[in-house]
Amino acid sequence: MIQPKEITARISEIAKAKASLPWVSALVLAFLAGAFIAFAAGGSTLVAHDSPSFGLGRLLTGAVFATGLMLVVMAGGELFTGNSLMVVGLLDRAIRPRDLLRNWSLVYVGNFAGSLFVAFLMGWSGLWRLNGGKVGASVISIAASKVSLDFGQAFVRGILCNWLVCLAVWMAAGALSAAGKAVAIFFPIMLFVASGFEHSVANMYYVPAGILAMGDPAISALAAGPASSLTWGSFFWKNLLPVTLGNIVGGVIFVGTLYWIAFVYGPSRSRNQIRG
Length: 276
What we know:
By secondary structure, this protein is mostly helical.
């Protein structure tokens, strides 16, 4: 494991490499990352849908969901939330603002496409009818709970989520082995999911999956409580927008910027003061 100061320099170099990706490569890698996160979301829902206790269910969900970021980091993918750390390259002047925005835009679109593609495949697979349709009912319940948050709640949960996600990416960048990367990723991701925080790319699967599941009368009849608020409009405006903004703040400010200040700006300023 390399030291945090060295990780900061490595993250800046990674940002430079990401900014120079051809647009086709960025879109394809983002599509894959969105699919990987969707696989993890779908698998974790199936595993935990009939958990005997609330807390155990959250723990199981988090443990399975962590697989998604492992796939992104170790198999290769471009994930919008993790790419918040590109701000380190921006602060280092290794990349330009337009390079950052170009990457974020391409990756966001690609992540959405990959997540949505897997949501449709899951709907067609018939897997939501497992356990008498209870899996599908859980899919609807999860989606409905996400669009029922008010803007402020979704925004704050987005901040908290990506604070931990970017810490996972940060630590994985400092790990020197595949096992080390897996451990670095597992615990922060398990913690954010178990805590109920909100991840924009995961929600690109969760909420569309719930909307699609509502189209199956056998499943929607089992859904607990009214799900009339579960629409594409409520998804975009009541969940995806505030969660995305929160994710940006969590990764850019509380990980990328603060570590850059601690390990780059702070020491550099101190040296200049000494010389003066």
